[in-house]
Amino acid sequence: MHVIRVRGINEALPAGLRHLTEVGQPRPSRAGDVVVSPYPVTTVYERPVERVLFWPVRDANPFFHLFSALWCIAGRNDAAFLNLFVHDYGERFTDNGIVAGAYGHRWRHWPTVFGEEKDQLVRVIEYLRRNRDGRRAVLAMWDPDRDLYTGETTLDVPCNSHIYLWQSLGGRDEPNRLSMTVCCRSNDIIWGAYGENSVVFSVLQEYVAAHLGLAVGPLYQISNNFHAYVALYDKLRSALRESQPPDHYKNNQVAPYPLVLEPETWDMDLALFMEDPGSNGFRNRFFSRVAKPLFFSHEAWRRKDWDAAFACVDQCAASDWALAVRQWLERRRK
Known about the structure:
Elements: E1 2-6, H1 9-23, E2 25-27, E3 34-36, E4 41-45, H2 62-73, H3 80-83, H4 89-93, H5 103-108, E5 110-111, E6 117-118, H6 120-130, E7 138-140, H7 144-148, E8 160-168, E9 177-184, E10 187-188, H8 189-212, E11 215-223, E12 226-229, H9 230-242, H10 263-275, H11 285-302, H12 306-314, H13 319-333
Parallel strand pairs: 1-4, 9-11, 10-12
Antiparallel strand pairs: 2-3, 3-12, 4-11, 5-6, 7-8, 8-9
Helix pairs in contact: 1-8, 1-9, 2-8, 11-12, 12-13
């Protein structure tokens, strides 16, 4: 087991690339040639809420990262919403427009042996409220019946399988924190581990922590098969030899924006946003001051209305997301 300990995502991706450069071995895979670590890798994020990646060579899509995280918390499994941000997502990754392994849908709609559906997130939060030192707060994403025995017939089998959440006691004059461990059977580090996964799971962690009145603690990401696809790996590794990726959190140019300020109404606001992103009825400022302006910035970009796209970004109160989106748009305008 190799451990990569970082402050946030902007340190994690370069560290992962360096690890594969040192020990990685070439292997074929179902989706193309990869470079893979000969043993599992655990990434420890000390500040998981510093989740926005700024490296221009990687050119991460901040719209997709943010809105796919909200899509997960909402418990969705349709590709229609994700197609807004990656136009062919459903065509590439789904069976008839349904994401078979959608993490959020499994969190929110887990089928029981009695034919009912249970909301795992609600049950985990209730459990941790009752059990301060509880060790049974487990979210399942891997279903053996669907994934092990019928997985060959679907385009999407979950890569991440289980999540463990627990309350870690703070030190003197420090608040108690919610820590989280994510277990992944097969982790592409560029698109997955240090791409969408780092955003989705840190958003989940912050969501649960807010409902428990806890600060966000470390996030542990265990990648059993830690790999990168060769073409993009070679490009990023070459760029890494030239210069280090920027980390605007470190120089205080940006800061994380609180996701959940009013937990009791947040799910209602999320449901409203998914139905009507332009609503004026949001009670949580995250939706009115972050999600809403960025959603309409993306809509304007799709129309190639550059002035409107940048004007919407200027209304975004989250400095980290706003900077990443502005840079992403500028690269496309050029």
